[in-house]
Amino acid sequence: MEDLKEKIITALKTVYDPEIPVDIYELGLIYDISIEDSGAVAIRMTLTSPMCPVAESLPMEVQEKVMGVEGVADVDLQVVFDPPWDKSRMTEEARLVLDMF
């Protein structure tokens, strides 16, 4: 399962919010990834804001990228706003890229 999770994370790192030059995983938009033995994947994610201009297209892109990972049978994607996203969820790498130290 860890190998599959790493492949999913790699796929997620190819998805970018078009307004920010950092991938959604490093931004901290992915709250949870759970994988069942059957290959069913559940992802909880958020957006930087409920009014995000890519609110409709970004979740679809995430779902498509994860479905493209070998070993993934299904993707249940939930977009949540609780807890709300904030800059503290970003990785150190994302903060460096965005000069937010």
Low-confidence stretches: none
Tell me about the biggest sheet?
3 strands, mixed
Distance between the termini: 34 Å
**Shape by Cα distribution:** globular
Q: Approximately how much helix is present in the residues?
A: 25-40%
State which percent range the strand residues make up.
Answer: 15-25%
| Spatial sequence of strands, sheet with the most strands | 1-2-3
Overall average residue pLDDT: 92
Explain the overall architecture:
With 101 residues, the chain is of the alpha+beta class. 32% of the residues lie in helices and 18% in strands. The protein contains 4 helices and 3 strands; from the N terminus they run ααββαβα. It has a 3-stranded mixed sheet with strand order 1-2-3. The protein is globular and about 40 Å long.
Topology at a glance:
Elements: H1 2-12, H2 24-27, E1 30-35, E2 40-45, H3 57-67, E3 74-79, H4 92-97
Parallel strand pairs: 2-3
Antiparallel strand pairs: 1-2
Q: Nutshell version of this structure?
A:
By secondary structure, the chain is an alpha+beta fold. Helices cover 32% and strands 18% of the residues.
Note the main attributes of this structure:
three-stranded mixed beta sheet, 101 residues, 3 strands, 32% helix, globular, alpha+beta
